[in-house]
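#lab-general

N.A. 3:47 PM
ok so I finally got the sequence cleaned up, no stray characters, all 1040 residues accounted for. can someone with queue access submit it? mine expired

B.Y. 3:52 PM
send it over

N.A. 3:53 PM
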Amino acid sequence: MEASAGLVAGSHNRNELVVIHGHEEHKPLRNLDGQFCEICGDQVGLTVDGDLFVACNECGFPVCRPCYEYERREGSQLCPQCKTRYKRLKGSPRVEGDEDEEDVDDIEHEFNMDDERNKHKYQAEAMLHGKMSYGRGPEDVEENSQFPPVISGRSRPVSGEFPISSHAHGDQMLSSSLHKRVHPYPVSEPGSARWDEKKEEGWKERMDDWKLQQGNLGLEQDDQDADMAMLDEARQPLSRKVPIASSKINPYRMVIIARLVILCFFLRYRIMNPVHDAFGLWLTSVTCEIWFAISWILDQFPKWFPIDRETYLDRLSLRYEREGEPNQLCPVDVFVSTVDPMKEPPLVTANTILSILAMDYPVDKISCYISDDGASMLTFEALSETAEFARKWVPFCKKFAIEPRAPEMYFSEKIDYLKDKVQPTFVKERRAMKREYEEFKVRVNALVAKALKVPPEGWIMQDGTPWPGNNTKDHPGMIQVFLGHSGGHDTEGNELPRLVYVSREKRPGFQHHKKAGAMNALVRVSAVLTNAPFMLNLDCDHYINNSKAAREAMCFLMDPQVGKKVCYVQFPQRFDGIDRNDRYANRNTVFFDINMKGLDGLQGPVYVGTGCVFRRQALYGYNPPKGPKRPKMVSCDCCPCFGRRKKQKLAKLGATEEGVNLQGMDDDKELMMSQMNFEKKFGQSAIFVTSTLMEQGGVPPSSSPAALLKEAIHVISCGYEDKTEWGLELGWIYGSITEDILTGFKMHCRGWRSIYCMPRRPAFKGTAPINLSDRLNQVLRWALGSIEIFFSRHCPCWYGYKEKKLKWLERFAYANTTIYPFTSLPLLAYCTLPAICLLTDKFIMPPISTFASLYFIALFISIYATGILELRWSGVSIEEWWRNEQFWVIGGISAHLFAVVQGLLKVLAGIDTNFTVTSKSADDEDFGELYAFKWTTLLIPPTTVLIINLVGVVAGISDAINNGYQSWGPLFGKLFFAFWVIVHLYPFLKGLMGRQNRTPTIVVIWSILLASIFSLLWVRIDPFVLKTKGPDTKNCGINC
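B.Y. 4:20 PM
back already:
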């Protein structure tokens, strides 16, 4: 497809397809009827009979005899164009396979797994040919083709080009069937000037090597040794597990067991010693403590096998990027989703896109898809500006190998940018690029300012066409290719990765499923246009901080030993713009550096919504490949067990022999069932269904760009998913606003495993809400999604037992992700108990003996020992651990509590809540959002708990003063309990107090506390009242 050829908008249901402001001309296709070899450039030559040499009788692709013989002897024995196996011609030597050319299923293919897999794939494709011919013209079908042209032959590797059979036919098809103005998209055919320009050089070098071998010219011994050493290095694993040192992990496990034993003794003591004069308080506290123990078990034991991992990028290059050969790294489609450009500023999204386009990966194997679920013209125009600036930014990044490759973050880094930069032109070009970026920011900000006021008639595009997305809830699907390999070049003439704008169709009365639906639309569009075998999912505010992030993921996904069963590679989330003290635990380091490492030692980490590289086949609902089965034991009939198994085996064998006779009768029925199953599963799209069968990716070699564009509009139509398995078994799973947890859970239940990759330089960085109210709303959304999963059929507590592919500790972790919001109920009660005890002069425990106090001492020691040893093997600082503990209480009694209430209302009463996008913008002032006060109802429960505990402390101290010294002993336990709550809510109180340059919060707290205590003491002493010492004899006499 031609870059910038126009915005394609249309609706499949309404039979509409229009291309807006397309002005590109056709590029003539190269004539393939010449007398020159398309591989080496030499003359094709003549046969022994004097006729023109024709290597392939199927397509007539021009290849000379040396290239033909080399390909038959050393290569894949396939025609480069039609992928048909070369037959032996007169005068050519025999090679392996010539004896049984007509029989594909012979002995030579018995252990050829690739050919077997392709054979099954072609059979499945042939099944689909009956109904799946959507968008194809009559000229697309060849009479003598073995398979349908859309799916015949092997898939062509993704190179960024759409294949085209005839421009005239593509144009005629669209114009005749749709009666809309459609501009054709000139692209190149296989065998044209653009087809495999880079591969041609590799072919020439391989031919030169072959000719050297024919002339008995060998390499020197030293070169052979070096090549052998490099080859041995390339055969090594691309990654390895790094277990935690036994000196760190073994004491940690021992303390966990000790803590579990101590916890059992502690709970036994609490249950066996009730408080009769405060039975209600005692029962509440014991119930809460039992729940906390269960929650701790679910959280702790999935961290039993933590591991680290190492990757070897040099081995990846040696294996898949050999010099003189085509690059064999797998293509990657990158998905970026955005909704509201006012909450997700276009400049933030632009930085993410620029970092993707500049990543260290072959440009012909990267395609970036932007999902604009708000159909905003602001996003569209900002993306157009971004594409133009990328022509300058990408070559600058690659020339000087800068990090990070998001310009806003790169130019704002306060480091010595001259370090390790020896190029004399670097300083000059950096200053020029910074000026270019400042001008780019001015243009984007001008677009934002313009978008604040919407015209009454709606937005109008530059060519006078109304913007199709003026009504955000009722608009057609839109696709625009901004950058591509035909026209998408930087200022130095190098190709750029493809950049595609996508806005799916929206109509009233259809369920669009928010972000999950948008991601599934991107999966289908990318499958039709590029169909890379792997997909990288990023939020619009998560830029690529490590340009080699995709290579890090490929070390796992392309590893021949471990990669085949890996469904995704998850990277940790890292954030910019967080205050130094991380007041509200925005970095979430405990989860990403402790919990996720523990899950990586089981079946893999959970999917967290961004920074994840997926295997496309896993998202399609396929099961992982099965390993080789162990051979069954052969035994006699003397053992009853073995005898029964042997009889069952013989019975099955006999049934199989009988079934062979009926196989021919059932072929037509099986073909019909396969067609129906594929349509029910993936939807009625021939090209898309075909792409799902291509494990290695690639687009169908005989599809025209016109048909692909029409199909792309079709697969993003609002009714495409009706009566299919999308959102149920395929793609991102529907049913929860935290679709990420649900999607990863479904993959793990099928037997896939995931990988946690933590490179030294963080792969991705994003922004986090540092304001208290925004942070609580974000946590509320996560907790509400967990509640929805708990009440759905996908609840980890009872889903997936039939397959038995989910490990038990992995199930514990998933169960914990859905149950943790319910901890808010016992946590709220437990935080209220200290104030009640202080106000009522009761306590939740009876007077304890010296022996019973050992339970409490041992429990506290085991809790802190577990934490310290956990920090020791994970590398998390104690400050980060403490912030996480504080926010666990703050979020537990606010956001999690509201999530439980809203979840119950949704399940019981059907009352739904709206999804709000977290704001990604920040004030110009450093940490301005941190001190802004935004009132929300989520602040009410923590404020109430904090006030009643402060009042309880004052009341308890005043009561102890009134009652004398004997009451101070029991008071200390209650005060310790109350101060535990106040200390955990301290960051929340700081958020309520406002800016740091005002009165320090600690001063305000102690001022109120001490003032209240001294006021009560002053009232108790009452110095202004005259105190008499003895009777007044003047009034009552001496006998008074």
